[in-house]
Amino acid sequence: MGSFFPLISRLASSSKHYASRALRSSTAFPPLRSLSTTSSSSSSSDRFRSWSRSLLPFAIAGTAAFALSLDLRPTPSSCDSGFGHHVGRKGSTEILVQGSHTAVPKEFIDELRAICESNMTLDYDERYFHGNPQNSFHKAVNIPDVIVYPRSQDDVQKIIKTCNKFKIPIVPYGGATSIEGHTLAPYGGVCIDLSLMKKIKALHVRDMDVVVEPGIGWIELNEYLKPYGLFFPLDPGPGATIGGMCATRCSGSLAVRYGTMRENVINLQVVLGNGDVIKTGSRARKSAAGYDLARLMIGSEGTLGVITEVTLRLQKLPQHSVVAMCNFKTIKDAADVAIATMLSGIQVSRVELLDEVQMKAINVANGKNLPEVPTLMFEFIGTEAYAREQTQLVQKIVSEHNGSDFTFVEDPDAKMELWKIRKEALWACFAMAPGFEAMTTDVCVPLSRLAECISKSKQLLDASTLLCTVIAHAGDGNFHALVLFDPSDEDQRQEAERLNHFIVHTALSMEGTCTGEHGVGTGKMKYLEQELGIGSLRTMKRIKSALDPNNIMNPGKLIPPHVCI
């Protein structure tokens, strides 16, 4: 009996809630005026139905007490169909992200200005720049209404609370190197540019970890760490920031040795959509305490909160390294060597594959004279003796798989130059096709399927009229195809999209993923149901709805718009 009266109280409260909502709703029930207006020819039964429907809200209120057992409570669908965009739906070939837009009120701008003072702008050029990412072919019909530049977690918290109060969309913005439309603002709103939050807050040399703000770049961080004999091992595109790297769960060429962002973050501080600040863990290297919220936030692409502090795991700078290159007649032979190397147990730190078209682009852009054939690049680290021993073992594997011209360098400047041209591969491609845009795929398959997946994809790419190159982080089954097309030519864009679809579906058919490291954004949403299943997507949607009930955090990204709960 002790639990009976609280139950009655809750049911009575539910009755008032549902009655109030039913009376307010203009979608669940038509207005009473329209229900009572009937033509003279209407039958008495029609009039009765109209009259009875007008009493339905009160009937719901009266029967809410039975809702727990009969499940009569209304459960409105929560999905993005009302937002007016179709990008991300299954089978979509659109790249222009549609979105409804409502002008932000002056009161909201005034409150933001009180928080940010001079660190905000309404300038059109700035808003256009932030709303059109330079490295992505994805576009949106709208741009942000305002750009803010917080200097602290406290600023971010106040900004988000204000946005939540007015239900204004938020787009977090880091180094803007993402390529799947992560920083588009299809509904306008506020772009939170974190570039002023770039402090290194604490370095713990003996613990080999560092606490940083999200706006610092990985290159800047490593310059700071070098005198201490430490480095942060993830190396995505130049310009990427730590916050964005967490948000997209990025990796890079060193992931084959050190793992992705998921394995290299110890703790996060995140501001949620209601302004709450959460800490996902401690500085301990391992913990079994509670849900793994850090891993939930890593890869959430700003849809659950804004990352304001990151504790990173660091590594010792290698004592010695060797960089090797070798050539192959076919891309399958090159991929087979990458697989054989990993299966041998050799601890490589990088295994990069470049096809003959990419090698030609590198020569054109850098004035080199490298062989224009499928090429593998390796890096071996450790003591001088160990690195050289690993180099010789791989050289033997290469010779057994039709490889040739195996060369290696140990001079620091020579090694840096080789990795520099690899890092600038995308820009080398643009040098071959000025004015073109690149559709960049990013799939990953089980290592044993890599050679087959690349070979199938390469056949289609070579047959296309477009300029296409292949680059792979071959040691972990991840590869990219860069498809260059004229953005003013719709036929070329459709051809690029066709190639992209083929590569992604080929990877999915081999138990792979539609994105190994670039993330989902708007570009890869349409593939998620095939890869993960609708149940997983609905679970993601429920998490999003629980943490961001007003859907202000980077709306229109990651979760396909057709997913409803």
UniProtKB/TrEMBL annotation:
The coenzyme or cofactor needed here is: FAD
Any GO MF annotation of the entry: D-lactate dehydrogenase (cytochrome) activity
Tell me which PROSITE patterns the record gives. Answer: FAD_PCMH
The protein's UniProt keywords, in alphabetical order, are:
FAD, Flavoprotein, Mitochondrion, Oxidoreductase, Transit peptide
- Give compartment(s): Mitochondrion
Main subcellular localization, coarse class?
Answer: mitochondrion
User: What is the designated name of this protein?
Assistant: D-lactate dehydrogenase (cytochrome)
Source species, please?
A: Dioscorea cayennensis subsp. rotundata (White Guinea yam)
In the UniProt record, the gene name given for this protein reads LOC120277998
